[in-house]
Amino acid sequence: MMNARNKALNELTALSRFVFCSPNGIQAEWLSAALGKWGTLLQEKASVMELLPRIAELKPLLVLLDFSGVEHANDQAGVLSSDVHGASAHAIELARALTKAMPTLPLVAVGSMAFPEGAIAALRAGVSDFIDVSASEDEARDVVQRVLAKAEARGSAPVPVKRGQLVTLLGVRSGIGTSTLAAHLADMIQQRHTGHGGKRNTTDSRVALLDLGLPAGDGKLYLSANGNFDFAEAVRNLRRFDETLVHTALPRSTGGVTVISLPHNLSEMRTVSHHDALALLDRLRLYFDVLIADLGGFTNQDFIANLTGAADQVWLVTDQSVGALVSLAGALQELNERHPDDGKRQLIVNRYDERFGMAANQIAERFKLPLLATLPERTLKLNASANRGKLLHDVSPHDIYIRMIDGLIDGLLKHEKNTPPKQGMGRLLHKILLKK
Prior knowledge:
Blueprint: H1 2-10, E1 17-21, H2 25-35, E2 40-44, H3 48-58, E3 62-66, H4 84-87, H5 89-101, E4 107-111, H6 116-124, E5 130-132, H7 137-153, E6 165-171, H8 178-194, E7 207-211, H9 218-222, H10 231-236, H11 243-248, E8 258-261, H12 274-284, E9 290-294, H13 301-310, E10 313-318, H14 322-338, E11 345-352, H15 360-366, E12 371-376, H16 379-387, H17 392-395, H18 400-418, H19 425-434
Parallel strand pairs: 1-2, 1-3, 3-4, 4-5, 6-9, 6-10, 7-8, 7-9, 10-11, 11-12
């Protein structure tokens, strides 16, 4: 069985979605934490007739069905139903419909041994694999590994789905130029994809900027993007997300970059759960080649840890000031407490000038980070171009700051081209298995 599991997990690619069909927010958070290191959990709440086409569109690795017997799903304690047919009827109906419509799609029941009638109902509905939410997260992962191995043995492993790269720019504090860098990076990548020089095709948006840095909305301002559809609203409309909505409702810059900013009222972000935010990112990666996430000055450490954990590359941005270096130490400590370093983190030293003090390679050695780039001090020129409503590459395309960003893009697109399919979830799962 171990060889079968290794084979199944190795052949998985960048498709890393799990769908949980339930209104139960407490269980969704638990499952998201259990499976988060492997992929994104999407929670779907709808009728069976609505869910069937939705699941077919999402092409998940597997579907998790709620047989917990909890009637009041948003109540932390929950209320167990004495009528299993009433409490689990939706899951039973959905399991039978999915088995008929998509017979190769792996199904897993979710419930608690405090309600054994749910496990019995799952078996009667034809779902033999069961995750007990009262057990450990490791046991949940074991179930998932076993189910995927069985799917591979039946020759029903999921078909790979193309996903765009997610690059996170983690500015260690506000005011060090992270949003300026993110805006230039996004616009210049869009130029590469849709026509370098000459007339650009702005109708084909290939790059999205997640403008989540503070102060809020700087990226949208720098790119002159029109529209007010913000991040919190995008999460609320997650189940409506399709290609039409992406290309009509989301704000877009004059150069064709799609921009999703923080809401004007930052308190709205409190209603955004971490797993819904990751689900949004996963959905967006279906429609864009590259997502640039600007987290310059963002303060919610759990959100940062989850987003950087889902990213393909994490670029920590600092300058040479004492305050920024202290913030860099704090940012790394926060990340390490939540996730071990998985090799995705690299360092960018912005506004760099050797006369300012500590050299870039000394900073990299001090914080044990690979040095990705040094970007020169260009505050005067960047402010001058911004005051004209332009980005620096539109005014001075051969400026050294622009040449350095061009080098970053070369490496990014080379990474995208050379990354083999097995670089995604399968590779990570295989490593985990080999450690057992």
